[in-house]
């Protein structure tokens, strides 16, 4: 089958979408819709259903019925595996269409969207599909007259809430292992990036995921998200998003059925460059990509650059040069390296962070401005702010935009102290040719992942999650399966 071109896909009208409940689209109890703006040009793209409490109830009910009657939860593991493998194939075959739809919705540049969204989602479904019939329970070492079995039972109905920055990738990190373990899912995507995940629900139905097993309810966080997290019939919540919303989920859990909440939250990750880095030119190039790609809208972005005093000025000049060289523009143009900032409020918040940093004494080396492009829309120049102090807002607060805070340090102890001087603990990076120092830094940095002589990047085989106020859950790898099962003991008298 001929694949349509990016331009042809871009020109297609996007039909208004409803919720996906029990295997089909529904306009929702109230019929209310909300407008979706494209960050590419700031123009209306389509409408999605503005969900209500009744819609959440309908989706949770469908998920519960499906779970209890066993149409998926008790399907033979090989059967679930085949369905999810088929879903992975379908996603791959529609990769360009999914990626372009996602880009029109959230502004990520198309090369990255293809790799990190569409193909990554296919790979995630394939990975967890393959895990289904390789995931065993245990036999306890008991005396001979009893048999102690430890089962991994599915938890039931999983509520998932995801953000707008990588909806397909992050959504799949939750949906795929949840379905693999036999659960039913109700997903609430971000109100500003729902389209590609609705498409995944359609493809899941086409692949053979039974009705009611995977449902999507769109709409506002404070309505749909809150109702889902307060539901007495949702067994666990898995969440990726900001700290304040994560905090609310814990409150909702306490006010409802004490459901477990797994939170993947924000970060202010320190990328630390020692004077003995093996290749300072490479360190500058990779560190620039590590903060500026996707307009800095990456949870693990190396948004604080700590540079050893002896190389500070030269390194800041080099990273500034890289920042200025990025081609920022229309995310559906294959030559753009950085696409749009997700929304006007996000862009304005980023610009306010720059003004505030200057007010607190930081020095703007480059960027800090909105870029006006032919397409209109929301674009921001990669921004380097030097001389940022530990007490500054820019050092302590997540921007989630293309703004780098640079701070000098003296030695290893100073670097570790500065790296750990925020409430976050998501990621970190160390550039050094000294193996002993690399290990001491890995041990010393309080974070879920520490990169050495690189920044960003990883694959499905390793977990991603944070410590401190960056959260408590891990996506990816076989460890993620633990979230979606309960340990259940069978004690059998022989
Ligand atoms: P957000 O918290 O505003 O929204 C995330 C989701 O929560 C959305 O679907 C939103 O509708 C929903 N929501 C909002 N209010 C809610 C409420 N009261 N109850 C229930 N749900 C509610 O975050 P965002 O702006 O979409 O995403 C950016 C944030 O996500 C950043 O902080 C970023 O660091 C974080 N993030 C973390 C990771 C990670 O793996 N740790 C990955 C990507 C993004």
Automatic annotation (TrEMBL):
State a single Pfam family of this protein: Aldedh
Keywords (alphabetical) are:
Oxidoreductase
Q: Name one GO molecular function term.
A: aldehyde dehydrogenase [NAD(P)+] activity
User: Where along the chain is the active site annotated?
Assistant: 264
Instruction: Tell me the ranges covered by the Aldehyde dehydrogenase domain, including all copies.
Output: 29-489
What EC number(s) has UniProt assigned to this enzyme? 1.2.1.5
InterPro entries from the UniProt entry: Ald_DH/histidinol_DH, Ald_DH_C, Ald_DH_CS_CYS, Ald_DH_CS_GLU, Ald_DH_N, Aldehyde_DH_dom
Similarity comment: Belongs to the aldehyde dehydrogenase family.
Name of the protein this chain belongs to? Aldehyde dehydrogenase PuuC
Species annotation: Falsiruegeria litorea R37
Taxonomic classification: Bacteria, Pseudomonadati, Pseudomonadota, Alphaproteobacteria, Rhodobacterales
